[in-house]
Every structure is written in C-alpha cells, then in structure tokens.
Amino acid sequence: MVAKINLGSSLYGALAYNGGKINKEEGKLLCVNRIPDDCTGKMEVAKAVEAFERCMPTHFKTEKPVVHISLNPHPDDVLSDVELANIAVEYLEKMGFGNQPWMVYKHEDIDRHHLHIVTVRVDESGKCISDRNNFYRSKEVTREIEKEYGLHTAERKSLRLDNPLRKVDVSAGDVKKQVGNAVKALVSGYRFQTMGEFRALLSLYNLTVEETHGNVRGEDYHGLVYSATDGNGNKAGNPFKASLFGKSVGYETVQKKFERSQTEIKERKLADGTKRIILSALAGTCHKDKFIATLKGKGIDVVFRHTDGGRIYGATFIDHRTGCVLNGSRMGKELSANALQEHFTLPYAGVAPIPVSIPVSSSSDELQRQYLSEHEAPSTGLGLFTPEGPAVDVEEERFIHEMQRKKKKKRKGFRL
Predict the structure, then answer these.
(1) Model's pTM, two decimal places?
(2) In 3D, which of 196, 165, 171 has the Cα closest to residue 183?
(3) Class in CATH terms, 2-154+374-404
(4) Per-domain residue ranges for the chain?
(5) Nearest to 17 by CA among 401, 382, 385, 396
(6) Closest Cα to residue 92, out of 125, 68, 56, 63?
(7) Which of 2, 102, 223, 410 could bridge to 119 as Cys pair (CB 3.0-4.6 Å)?
(8) Residue 211 and residue 224 in contact, taking contact as beta carbons nearer than 8 Å
(9) Rounded Cα gap, residues 90 and 311, in angstroms
C-alpha cells in the first residue's frame, strides 16, 4: 500500500475536489469524524467547511494547515468498504490525526479504487500537529497495516506477479535436468506445510513425489522420489531419487520446510490476503471454471482433487505472488472441500450470484506495471510524497499541484 501526504492552505479546495467526485457518483464518503454526514450520498462543500472551522480557532500560525492524504492499496488487494474505512481510521490514529476532524472518501472514477482523506493539522487550541519524520512514520504505519490485513507490500521484491517456471515436457528430452531444475526452484521459492500441499504445487508443473521408507542394516531410512507426469497426472518416464539433485530437495530439507513454512505463514499472516481474494471470487460466481479463471487472473492457481464420481474431496490454493501453498480447509470451513462442492452444485448451480459490495480491482498488466513503478519518496517543498503515483489521474495531479503551490504572501487561517 502506498501512502501520499500533501499539505495545503485551501480547505475549500480539498473538500470541493473530493466532494465533486461524490456528487458526480465517481466515489463515495466512507466515514467521518466530528463532521456531520446526512447519509444522502451527496456532499455540500460549504457545510463541510463550516464544520471543520468549528473545530479550529479563528486564527493560528500554521501556514498550511490542510492535510490531504491518499492511500493506494495494491490492485490485487480485494477490500470491502468496511475494511477500507477501518484501514483509513487506523492510519489516521497512528499518524496522530485520530481526534482531528476528517473525512474519508473512496474514489471510483478509475479502474483501481483508492482512498482520499481530508483533515487538518491544527487542533482546537491552535497547536500544530507535528509532521516531523512523517515520511518514515507513514511508511512504518502502512507496513503495519499491510501485515495486519494481509495486504501486498509496496516493496518490489516481495511481489511475485507472474509464474516464470515452465512445466516439465517429457517429449522435449533431458527429463532429468528439467525435473531437477523445476524441483529446486519450487522447494526454494514456495512455502508448503504438508506433503499434500507440496504435491499440489508439483502437479502444476507435471511433477509428483513419493516418499520411500525402509531399513538397511538395522538403520531406518527415509527418502523422496520425483517423477515427471503427463498432462493428466499420470507418471511418464523413469523416476528420480532426490539424491540425484542434491540435499536441497531431499527428505530432511522438505520436512524442515514444512515447519518453517508453518511458522512464517502464521506469524506473517500470509494466508489472510489470499483468503480474502478467494472469498471474493466465490461471491462472484457459482461456476467452478469461472472461479478457477478468476483466481488465475489474480495470480492464484487452485488444484482440486475429485473422487471417481466427480465430487470435490480436496482443494489447494497456490498463491504465486506470496509463494504460499494453502490447503482450503486450513483457511476455514468456508473453503473446505464440502463447502466448495456445495457451492458449485445445487442449489447454487445456474443461479446468478448475489451482488456484493467488495470492489474487485483490475489486475491487468498495465495496472501491475503502474503499481510496481511506485516508490515512496519525499518530494520537494512541503509535500511529503511525490505527486505522481498509482491511481492518480490528470485531474488529481492538477489538484495536488495546487495543494503544493507556495503562496507569495503568508496569510493566517484558511484560504477559501
């Protein structure tokens, strides 16, 4: 999530800009503090200005008291309006604006929805809320929120937006090399907690694995054997002992991987964001194929296991962006095999899904590139973040530019 803070002196300008979005039905007012909301879905700018001014002294020394903040989640973070509002409130509280008057808006005029916040940094006594180290404080706060809500981070290296590995192709020859390269990359690059999850991951690349146990000269041994498969999951060609590829893909390494993955997924709440996207996809369709395609477009593969009669008895989700392999039932009963089977069969089959209010942002390559090009950095002047950024259109850039313009003559109070 990328946050941008800009300071200005025109309260009317900040409220009119966001109010215009609301009144043109290009956004909505999510929540307010100490400012009346008539819940009509419209906004009277003049009344909002009066409400802000009632919370502040008539005169104060702060040159640019108006704070305009935009919060931009990653395109693949599927968040409800309630979650967005909670995120905005938590951000304001941690940045020291919790008790100030503020208004939180969601802009919906471009593909990727994002938040705008208008508040003031002068309290009722005229004291200015410190903006010292705001850039670093904001970055720390957004990272805390990302972790709490299981959101994608703004760090380029932590986003896995594509899946560069290729499936093993027996007909292409040199199967041993193909299998070894793929297995090494998967063991090192993904987190999985059980052998079943590991097999589900391998199956995406025409691979499978079996455990071997025995006793030689009175000593027990445990090992792994990898095999290539065809497009239908049937073994193709000769199997390969893990020892042929080194200890990095051997039995002991994989067992330690289970324990380490369990700890990382739990402590870093890596499954939360994945679960949110899966539930959103489920809410949008009752057709299994469409569900699979929707998740694939979000960078998540799903591996279903079926009985001979076609009933789902297992589901594993592979999130290529976080590198997590997650069993459905482990994430909750609503994603268990039985729950998914019921969702994709009667009485749901053929029935249009109930509309939900969760905004599903575009996951096109254009938006991904746009997001990855973002870097939080201090701007010149009094703006603490660069005006360019994700989810900023021409009109918004012009507004931010006006926010950051220095006045030729200092004045006290608001410039209306």
Answers:
(1) 0.51
(2) 165
(3) alpha beta
(4) 2-154+374-404, 170-267, 270-343
(5) 396
(6) 68
(7) 102
(8) yes
(9) 43
